[in-house]
């Protein structure tokens, strides 16, 4: 049996078993949790009523959170010509083609996001086995295959996030940091919640969200009453 840390035991006491909390209550409890020695992220887990084996039911999208994520990200950009200067000017951490591909192959730099101009996708496509599992393969739906690098980079810096369901039909997403105010976390969550709801496949009937919980990086999850949102 896995041993529960003293910190986790203290945090678990604050959550009543089988109780479903309002979003405001849940965020308030998270902010009273005994925290780690770093600023923890606040995450949401959405159990959605889809069959992930059917490609037409899979959920993916992107959203710019009103208060950002509070996370500093490292951005790599594949591009050529005049766009090299644009990418450098607006905050890319590394810009290139073959040289950037070599860095990714050797994994000498860990990137949080990869953006690519369309003309570089033949090269980027070969990196799929590396970028795919990391969840950073450029995709037009996420705005990471782009002809407007300025917009893509600035949105990423402001807190644009990408989401998609896993093989079990669950969407995991960060929506802020624990040092955000309660209203900032509430508004970020609501924006994410509504955006995912818009991605509901047309053929799905009935309930879409089966269960939603929120947590910090190190805390237990708190189930929220999503039907009241």
TrEMBL record:
The protein's assembly and partners: Part of the 50S ribosomal subunit.
Entry keyword set: Repressor, Ribonucleoprotein, Ribosomal protein, RNA-binding, rRNA-binding, Translation regulation, tRNA-binding
Annotated source species: Buchnera aphidicola
Molecular functions per Gene Ontology: rRNA binding; structural constituent of ribosome; tRNA binding
Family: Belongs to the universal ribosomal protein uL1 family.
Top-level taxon in the UniProt lineage: Bacteria
Any Pfam family: Ribosomal_L1
CDD domains: Ribosomal_L1 (cd00403)
InterPro entries xref list: Ribosom_uL1_bac-type, Ribosomal_uL1, Ribosomal_uL1-like, Ribosomal_uL1/biogenesis, Ribosomal_uL1_3-a/b-sand
Biological processes annotated in GO: regulation of translation; translation
Role according to the record: Binds directly to 23S rRNA. The L1 stalk is quite mobile in the ribosome, and is involved in E site tRNA release.
Protein name: Large ribosomal subunit protein uL1
């Amino acid at each position: 049996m896995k041993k529960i840390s003293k910190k986790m035991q203290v945090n678990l006491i604050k959550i009543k078993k089988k109780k479903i909390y309002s979003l405001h209550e849940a965020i308030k409890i998270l902010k009273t949790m005994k925290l780690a020695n770093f600023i923890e992220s606040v995450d949401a887990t959405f159990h959605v009523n889809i069959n992930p084996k059917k490609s037409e039911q899979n959920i993916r999208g992107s959203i710019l959170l009103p208060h950002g994520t509070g996370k500093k990200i490292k951005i790599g950009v594949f591009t050529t010509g005049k766009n090299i200067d644009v990418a450098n000017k607006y905050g890319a951490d590394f810009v290139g083609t073959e040289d950037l591909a070599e860095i990714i192959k050797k994994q000498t730099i860990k990137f949080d996001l990869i953006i690519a101009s369309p003309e570089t996708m033949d090269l980027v496509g070969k990196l799929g086995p590396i970028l795919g599992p990391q969840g950073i393969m450029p995709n037009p739906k996420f705005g990471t295959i782009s002809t407007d690098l300025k917009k893509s980079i600035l949105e990423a810096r402001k807190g644009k996030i990408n989401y998609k369901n896993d093989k079990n039909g669950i969407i995991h997403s960060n929506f802020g940091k624990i040092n955000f105010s309660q209203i900032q976390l509430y508004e970020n969550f609501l924006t994410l919640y509504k955006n995912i709801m818009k991605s509901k496949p047309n053929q799905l009937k009935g309930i879409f969200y089966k269960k939603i919980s929120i947590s910090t990086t190190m805390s237990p999850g708190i189930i929220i009453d999503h039907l009241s949102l």
